[in-house]
Design a protein that fits this description.
heterodimer; A: about 300 residues; mainly alpha; two-stranded antiparallel ribbon; 10 helices; 2 strands; B: about 260 residues; alpha/beta; D-Maltodextrin-Binding Protein, domain 2; 2 domains; 8-stranded mixed beta sheet; about 35% helix; about 20% strand
């Protein structure tokens, strides 16, 4: 009987070890596939971008300041597109930082547990709204509303796109703000209260300064999302590649240019490759932005650990 | 053009149930790319292939053959509140090259003209640039001004102009004919000729466009790899038959033949 038992156990451990190994390698493989795909995508983008550089010349992308890729005298400057991208992303980040931080502070420090449980799911739904739906709403309803409000000459403009973008940025910034504030150890708040400092002053002078790097990481991450967002700017910005700093003019962003032109571009032409170049340029910008915010978050975690 | 192609495919499969036709959209570039890499047998495109595309196809062993399959009238639209009814081609050129940027000299209202157009790789953009803006003294194509807004489709242009008091736009006449919230403008070839509208009483004036009395129209094309064989030939023949051209008319493009006897 005993013998049978031990051999059974042995069999079982062998079998379960096999299963465990298989499962482990299966998951490892899945992880590696995503890494591989990412590398292949980057490789492909860089390959096409290099074709653009060798065919058109990198200087062409930064001089002339005009985007006329299909003209008789083609001009491939990324500068007006970069202006357009920043002219929508910066105002959007400012608007949504203001509202997102207030919302984050409220959720973390002020709201009661019940209120938070009601508000949070709504913010999460907001974050999950398909951007094409937001773009469509802005185009169909928002544009007329804002034109009547601000009496703008052009109906579709950078400011309108920025309003649309802030709808998706507010949830990002508010939830990262909330996370950063919650990571602040309670003993800091208690120390402040014990000195007789009221709640508002504690939030302003103790909690927010302690979490400032987390909050700024949220803002930077939001900015990165604004730069990479496509549908809203495609539908709301008017897509005129004008070199302007006027928020009430139509602008053309890098993302909208790629989305709008890639479908009908002459295959294999310099224009086709130039779209890959500006895409790679965008990839590098957003990569750097995400990297910066990750670094800031990592540094803050370390600092707060020390305080604890 | 993808909707028209879809209807052609449906009509064709009724006549030839043994042959199945699959339609994919995505734009002219997508069409030609799929013809070159062999994933499609026929590419329907709203512009002629560019020399660079023909070269690229030949390098890859594909010999694109062009078939004219339908006509499309291009109309100019303004907001219904705009009091202009007709416009000369010369003035249209001044407006769309940015030389005239205020309505004042046209209808007396002091407001900036808001230009609406299509993406720079679309067939409509290319057509309008060639036929209205033309070339400068050095023989170069004149470009649209950089403040022209590029929208994603002719329907979006109609929508934008319907809401923009000072807007002007252009596109395939089929998208505009039935709408009352925009005004299709009559075109004068020069100041001496009569202004011609492509739309009469909310319906397209097919004859005026086909016979060139209305000056702005373009062909739509199908491209095959080499001379069409078997099924491809049957399909092209169907498109060009009275039935195929009837579908063209029902989709508000202009049939190539005048009398459609079914």
């Amino acid at each position: 009987m005993k013998k049978y038992h031990s051999s059974y156990a042995k069999k079982r451990t062998f079998k379960s070890a096999l299963v465990e190994k298989t499962v482990k390698y299966f998951f490892f493989l899945n992880g590696m596939i995503s890494v591989l795909f990412l590398l292949l995508i980057i490789l492909f983008l860089f390959k096409e971008a290099i074709s653009a550089i060798s065919g058109i010349g990198i200087a062409e992308f930064f001089k002339n300041v005009q985007w006329y890729p299909t003209s008789d005298a083609p001009r491939y400057s990324i500068i007006p597109l970069l202006y357009g991208t920043l002219l929508t992303a910066i105002p959007a980040t400012i608007i949504s930082s203001f509202l997102g931080i207030i919302l984050g502070v409220y959720l973390s420090e002020i709201a009661s547990g019940r209120t938070r449980e009601i508000i949070k799911p709504f913010i999460e739904i907001f974050a999950g709204l398909p951007t094409v739906v937001i773009g469509f709403l802005i185009l169909a309803v928002g544009s007329t509303f804002f034109q009547e409000l601000f009496n703008t000459g052009t109906r579709l403009n950078a400011l309108l796109a920025a309003f649309g973008l802030s709808i998706i940025l507010i949830p990002t910034i508010s939830s990262l703000t909330e996370d950063a504030l919650r990571a602040v150890p309670d003993n800091l708040r208690m120390a402040s209260y014990s000195l007789g400092i009221n709640k508002f002053s504690t939030i302003r002078n103790v909690v927010i300064p302690a979490a400032i790097s987390g909050v700024s990481a949220g803002i930077i991450l939001g900015f990165g999302r604004a730069i990479g967002e496509t549908m809203i700017v495609l539908m709301a910005s008017g897509n005129a590649a004008e070199l302007t700093l006027n928020l009430l003019h139509s602008v053309r962003t890098i993302t909208a240019t790629i989305a709008g032109e890639l479908g009908e571009v002459a295959y294999g032409s310099p224009h086709y490759y130039s779209l890959f170049f500006i895409g790679t340029f965008l990839l590098i910008i957003t990569f750097v932005i995400n990297l910066i915010s990750e670094l800031i978050i990592a540094r803050m975690r370390k600092k707060l650990k020390k305080m604890n | 053009m993808v909707n028209l192609t879809q209807r052609w495919a449906e009509g064709f499969m009724v006549e030839h149930p043994e042959i199945s036709v699959q339609v994919t959209g995505g734009g002219s570039g997508t069409g030609i790319a799929s013809l070159i890499n062999g994933t499609s047998s026929i590419a329907n495109i709203s512009r002629e292939l560019k020399p660079s595309e023909i070269n690229y196809a030949r390098q890859n062993g594909v010999n694109p053959i062009q078939h004219i399959v339908a006509l499309d009238g291009i109309a100019v639209i303004v907001n219904p509140n705009n009091n202009i009814d007709s416009i000369s081609i010369a003035l249209l050129k001044k407006i769309y090259s940015g030389e005239v940027n205020n309505w004042k000299s046209i209808n007396g209202i002091d407001a900036n003209i808001v230009l609406y157009g299509r993406e720079n790789s679309s067939g409509t953009y290319e057509y309008f640039r060639q036929s209205i803006l033309g070339r400068d003294e050095s023989g170069r194509q004149i470009d649209f001004p950089s403040n022209m807004q590029s929208l994603q489709g002719t329907a979006s242009i109609a929508e934008a102009v319907s809401k923009d008091k000072y807007g002007i736009g252009f596109g395939g006449v089929g998208y505009f004919a039935l709408r009352n919230d925009i005004k299709v403008v009559s075109i004068k070839i020069n100041d001496k000729t009569k202004a011609i509208s492509p739309v009469v009483n909310n319906s397209i004036d097919y004859d005026a466009i086909r016979e060139g009395v209305y000056p702005l129209s373009r062909y739509l094309y199908s491209y095959t790899n080499g001379i069409p064989k078997e099924n491809e030939k049957l399909y092209i023949d169907f498109i060009l038959s009275a039935k195929g051209q009837k579908i063209v008319e029902s989709m508000e493009y202009i049939p190539l033949i005048k009398k459609l006897i079914l």
